């Protein structure tokens, strides 16, 4: 059994862990309305952004890009200059529908999910999710829609396969990602998350490991599910809290797999 250690406590709905080039670990605090940075020496610093920040990604411009579900926007933060900018807040004349997660592909395209309202809110039973992309030149377009809470994103290394979690249907979709034409095609269910029956629960954020496997945070059941590169289920890692939101691997190898856990408000470390 893997050993789970706690890196930080007292967090207010942590999300979106990501490492910067200096080895610092960042995450968003959705209910804390800001970003948190854990330095390699263990010091923690908070930066107020307002809104409800969720997914984080280190952009090719050196900024930390983040989804803000409270302000219905994609924003970015420069760690040194402490400057925050709103990059996208509308598409086709409408506000973004609660953006949740994002990533940059190798061509510099931004891909992000807008899942809409969570279960229990008005109209949440309707498949309102859209997945959008923005080219380096600023062209925004829909690459997928019709899902029930499109959420986490990942690209399988050395392939053109883009994975998207659909939380309320407990499954992960795969398709061929064309970074030149910014299109997602040949779409299939890549994996199903079994033994999860509550529509509030399901696959959230995910990360590709150095072993080539996919590690999926399953919100509501306190688990990381591990799949191979073909979508075959391998094993489960049990966590101390029920609501893991996302995970990321330390590229330097020191911290292993880092998980943001919202029920207990913790940043977790798992050495595999």
Q: What would you note in describing this structure?
A:
This protein is mainly beta. Helix content is 0%, strand content 54%. The protein has no helices and 26 strands. It starts with a strand and ends with a strand. The mean pLDDT is 94.
Radius of gyration: 17 Å
Report the count of strand segments: 26
Helix tally?
A: 0
Low-pLDDT parts are none
Q: Termini separation (Å)?
A: 9 Å
Q: Describe the global form.
A: globular
For the largest beta-sheet, the strand count, sense and barrel status come to: 4 strands, antiparallel
Strand content: over 45%
Class by helix and strand content? mainly beta
Q: Helix-strand pattern, N to C?
A: EEEEEEEEEEEEEEEEEEEEEEEEEE
Within the largest sheet, what's the order of strands? 1-26-25-24
Summed over residues and divided by their number, the pLDDT gives a mean of 94
Portion of residues within helices: under 10%
Topology:
Blueprint: E1 3-8, E2 14-19, E3 25-29, E4 34-38, E5 44-48, E6 53-58, E7 64-68, E8 73-78, E9 83-88, E10 90-91, E11 94-95, E12 102-104, E13 110-114, E14 129-134, E15 140-147, E16 150-155, E17 161-166, E18 171-178, E19 183-192, E20 202-208, E21 214-219, E22 223-227, E23 233-238, E24 244-249, E25 257-261, E26 266-271
Antiparallel strand pairs: 1-26, 2-3, 3-4, 4-5, 6-7, 7-8, 8-9, 10-11, 12-13, 13-14, 14-15, 16-17, 17-18, 18-19, 20-21, 21-22, 22-23, 24-25, 25-26
């Amino acid at each position: 059994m893997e050993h789970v250690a706690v890196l930080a406590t007292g967090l207010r709905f942590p999300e979106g862990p990501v490492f910067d080039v200096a080895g610092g670990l960042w995450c968003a605090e959705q209910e804390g309305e800001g970003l948190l940075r854990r330095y390699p020496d263990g010091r923690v610093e908070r930066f107020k952004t307002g809104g409800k920040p969720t997914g984080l990604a280190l952009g090719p411009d050196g900024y930390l890009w983040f989804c803000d579900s409270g302000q219905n926007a994609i924003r970015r933060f420069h760690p040194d200059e402490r400057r925050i900018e709103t990059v996208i807040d509308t598409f086709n004349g409408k506000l973004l529908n609660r953006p949740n997660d994002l990533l940059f592909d190798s061509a510099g395209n931004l891909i992000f999910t807008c899942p809409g309202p969570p279960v229990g809110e008005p109209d949440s039973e309707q498949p309102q999710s859209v997945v959008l992309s923005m080219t380096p030149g600023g062209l925004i377009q829909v690459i997928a829609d019709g899902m029930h809470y499109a959420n986490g994103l990942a690209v399988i290394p050395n392939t053109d396969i883009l994975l998207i979690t659909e939380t309320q249907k407990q499954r992960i979709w795969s398709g061929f990602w064309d970074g030149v034409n910014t299109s997602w095609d040949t779409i299939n269910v890549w994996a199903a998350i079994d033994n999860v029956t509550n529509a509030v629960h399901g696959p959230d954020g995910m990360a590709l490991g150095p072993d080539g496997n996919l590690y999926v945070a399953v919100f509501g059941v306190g688990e990381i599910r591990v799949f191979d590169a073909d979508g075959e289920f391998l094993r489960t890692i049990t966590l101390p809290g029920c609501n893991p939101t996302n995970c990321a691997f330390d590229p330097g190898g020191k911290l292993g797999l880092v998980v943001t856990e919202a029920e207990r408000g913790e940043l977790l470390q798992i050495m595999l």
